[in-house]
Amino acid sequence: MSKETRNWLSRNVLVGFTEKRGNAWHYREGDQNHYPGPIPVEDVHHRLFHWTAQEKELYVKAEVGEGAMLIPGRKAIVRSDTGAVLGIFRAGYQPHQYGEWLLDNVANIIDDDLQIGSAGLLREGAVAWVSVEVPDNIITPEGVVFRPFLLAATSFDGTVATTYKRVVTNVVCDNTMRAALDREQGQVFRVRHSAKSLSRLGDARDALGIVHGIAEEFSAQVASLSSVKVDDRTFERVVNLSVPMPQGGPDGAGKKRAVALAEKKRDALWRMWREDDRVAPWNGTAMGAWQAFNTYEHHERAVRKGAARAERNMMRTVSGEIETADAEVVHRILALAA
Q1: Mind listing the pLDDT tens digit for each residue in 71-89?
Q2: In Å, what is the CA distance from 250 to each residue of 220, 254, 264, 327, 332?
Q3: Rounded-to-integer distance, Cα 21 and Cα 91, Å
Q4: Alpha-carbon gap, residue 147 to 136, rounded angstroms
């Protein structure tokens, strides 16, 4: 079950540049985790990364008596402040401390004029991220307002390799999106938690390029997609292929539920395509069709019981699930529109 309640998010997520993009959905009057401008590095260290991940020997209860037996070749990673166990790994695993890998190392990769736009902890501190952004929003001629940023993330539970990736936020709907959907080189740089981690960090700047370059790439992508016409008939074909109705098999409760879920998703996509303010400005284009699917993924796709949407969205951004979904739907839209 997720621990990312409103109270958790208020204490463990910092949101910057609110004068440019507004408050996060979990903002509450009196919270001190929102900043009109960039987030001071000192606040990230003091409020989020004030603890370290410690390596501890791992034991199991002995079969006889009250003693314990050491498990060779295994270790536990625990929080230094609470003692919470974050993960269990083989001996070769090297924890990447948040302050070093998400702040100090990022400072060596980026330009000096880029500033912290958000930072946070998820899963009781087992996952963390920091985004480094340009100070101002960028507006394309097509009216898309976005913010390019470098996302740095890592984990102590094995779910995320240390990752540096170039992403954009569509300000009107707070969606994360990827420029260069053909997956060109220079978009993502990952470092495994191993003894050779540090030897690869010197390659990160060359691999990622400069964050400012995202603005030109994403603006060109928006212009290209906005020039492709997509009518209702084409959008229907995209929806039908993206959300196929269950076929064959027994007509039992399982199939009825699958049919109901598919119909619900199709209805939501059509509603966004025709009526949603986050999609309407680009209706009739490939950009609008992509926007409908991307907005659905962030704001309407079902979240498992007990989970938090904010956690799910950030984890899918870090893991690459969002960019994979974006790439698939954009390629499908362009193929059918052609």
Answers
A1: 999 999 999 999 999 999 9
A2: 48, 9, 21, 33, 30
A3: 44
A4: 7
